[in-house]
């Protein structure tokens, strides 16, 4: 069963709009992801540059908002979108879907992983752009939808990104 947007909004710190079946979320920050070899080893997650490990937070470059409130994003680059804090209730699983206006305009989205029951933090998605994009900071990129679990999980999400914030 899909939750109503009103129900979903109770688990979001900030949202752009309540829809019948979810809430629209705008990023609170956008980072450029470097074009470097990726390194994953347990809790070490980042990149390799000149044969040295670089933590993912250090390697990513924050994108500034211009004087009119726009992000000016370049083509052929990969970006991380960081969204306001959410808390996924134990009786649901979260799914983030791209807003149709971005799809219709040709923005290529790379879908995020499922947001597990019990996850709490500033969730992220990645997007690869094939053409430049000028987008206002208040534009919604995703709609967060909750699907009710058939049964409440025995354990909560307890992964690497639990309680992550910028």
Describe the structure.
By secondary structure, this protein is mainly beta. It has a domain at 5-32 and 70-148: Deoxyuridine triphosphatase (dUTPase) (Deoxyuridine 5'-Triphosphate Nucleotidohydrolase, Chain A, Distorted Sandwich). The chain is 8% helix and 42% strand. The longest helix is centred in the first third of the chain and has 5 residues, at 5-9. The radius of gyration is 17 Å and the shape is globular. The protein starts with a helix and ends in an 18-residue tail after the last strand. 20% of the residues are buried.
Structural class: mainly beta
The sequence of SSEs as H and E is: HEEEEEEHEEEEEHEEEEE
CATH superfamily of the domain at 5-32 and 70-148: Deoxyuridine triphosphatase (dUTPase)
Helix content, binned percent: under 10%
**Overall spatial form:** globular
Percentage of residues in strands: 35-45%
CATH-derived architecture of the domain at 5-32 and 70-148: Distorted Sandwich
- Show unreliable segments: none
Quaternary assembly: single chain
Question: What is the tally of helical segments?
Answer: 3
Mean pLDDT: 92
| Strand segment tally | 16
How far is the first residue's CA from the last residue's CA? Answer: 32 Å
The strand line-up of the biggest sheet is 7-3-9-14-12
CATH class of the domain at 5-32 and 70-148: Mainly Beta
Q: What is the CATH topology assignment of the domain at 5-32 and 70-148? A: Deoxyuridine 5'-Triphosphate Nucleotidohydrolase, Chain A
Taking all Cα atoms into account, the compactness measure Rg is 17 Å
């Amino acid at each position: 069963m899909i939750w109503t947007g009103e129900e979903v909004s109770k688990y979001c710190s900030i949202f752009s709009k309540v829809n019948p079946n979810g809430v629209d979320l705008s990023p609170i920050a956008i980072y450029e992801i470097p074009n470097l070899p990726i390194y994953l080893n347990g809790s070490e997650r980042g990149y390799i540059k000149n044969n040295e490990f670089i933590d993912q937070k250090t390697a990513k470059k924050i994108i500034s908002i211009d004087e009119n409130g726009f992000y000016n994003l370049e083509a052929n680059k990969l970006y991380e979108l960081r969204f306001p804090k959410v808390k996924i209730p134990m009786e649901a699983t979260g799914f983030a879907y791209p807003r149709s206006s971005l799809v219709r305009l040709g923005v290529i989205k790379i879908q995020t992983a499922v947001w597990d029951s019990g996850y709490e933090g500033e969730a992220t998605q990645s997007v690869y752009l094939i053409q430049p994009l000028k987008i206002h900071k208040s534009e919604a990129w995703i709609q967060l939808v909750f699907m009710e679990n058939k049964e409440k999980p025995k354990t909560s999400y307890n992964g690497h990104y639990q309680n992550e914030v910028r």
